[in-house]
Amino acid sequence: MILVEKGLIKNFLSFLALEKGLSENTIEAYRNDVKKLYDYLEERKILITSVRYEDLLLFMEQLHVLGISARSQARVVSGIKSFFQYLQMERIITADPSELLETPKTGMHLPQVLTVQEVETLIGSFNEGKAEDQRNRAIFEVLYGCGLRVSELVNLKISQVYMDEEFILVEGKGNKQRLVPLSVPARKAISLYLYDRNRLDIKKGNEDILFLNRRGAKLTREMIFTIIKRQCQVCGIHKRVSPHTFRHSFATHLLEGGANLRAIQEMLGHESIKTTEIYVHLDKDYLRSEILTHHPRNARK
């Protein structure tokens, strides 16, 4: 049955190429959108030919919970609608479950998302010759490259950064732990920052905290907001950018790059993890593959 389901997607893509004459990039975008839905349905053991409108609503709700931008959600809806219209046209299904599915409006209450170019501009605007700029660059790389909450960032410990394994151990809400792949740019930025950090007079109790202020104490959440606001002004970016903007940009850009929804969900910490040991053995190679393949900061490395 799995082969039959995948065959439907393959036939749909052939239809787009041969009869619609769409470009390779457009067809690839459709493939990614339909594949996300297929993976979601496969986990719940729902056949494509048995999908109901309610199933699609739950799928879109998951995108919303992940903080995916309205623009990206709209693109996914467009791809899904085209797919089910094709299935109905071919008489594979009798009714189109996506007929009443609405395209998210840009006015939805979702956080703003930075473009890949805006992120590149922000990260590239720091002066690597200044210790404070080196620290801030590392902060931006970790926020965007790992999708951390601001509380997770300021509490991140050196002992939770595994450079050789290319992961960080994050303590999220409810003291739940998760592993998130660490990109090459993030590892490089952290390594350069640690050289300057080791020269600080570190306050007692902060010895293991990764990101410190000039007085050797842990950075506050408010200071992270201030750093981001100041750098946006330097770069002429007029969006309302917060630490959470980087988190949602992380999720949106991975989705647009074709990453699996489950991988994004796990890296954001939206699923409970019973033990770190089980998580490492089951998923670390899979998650690393997803982020190295689909995250913009890795794509060109």
UniProtKB/TrEMBL annotation:
The active site is at R149, K173, H244, R247, H270, Y279 (o-(3'-phospho-dna)-tyrosine intermediate). One of its GO terms (cellular component) is cytoplasm. Keywords: Cell cycle, Cell division, Chromosome partition, Cytoplasm, DNA integration, DNA recombination, DNA-binding. Residues 109-292 form the Tyr recombinase domain. The keyword Cell division applies. Pfam families: Phage_int_SAM_1, Phage_integrase. It comes from the Bacteria. HAMAP family: Recomb_XerC_XerD. Site-specific tyrosine recombinase, which acts by catalyzing the cutting and rejoining of the recombining DNA molecules. The XerC-XerD complex is essential to convert dimers of the bacterial chromosome into monomers to permit their segregation at cell division. It also contributes to the segregational stability of plasmids. This is Tyrosine recombinase XerC. It comes from Candidatus Gallibacteroides avistercoris. The lineage of its organism: Bacteria, Pseudomonadati, Bacteroidota, Bacteroidia, Bacteroidales.
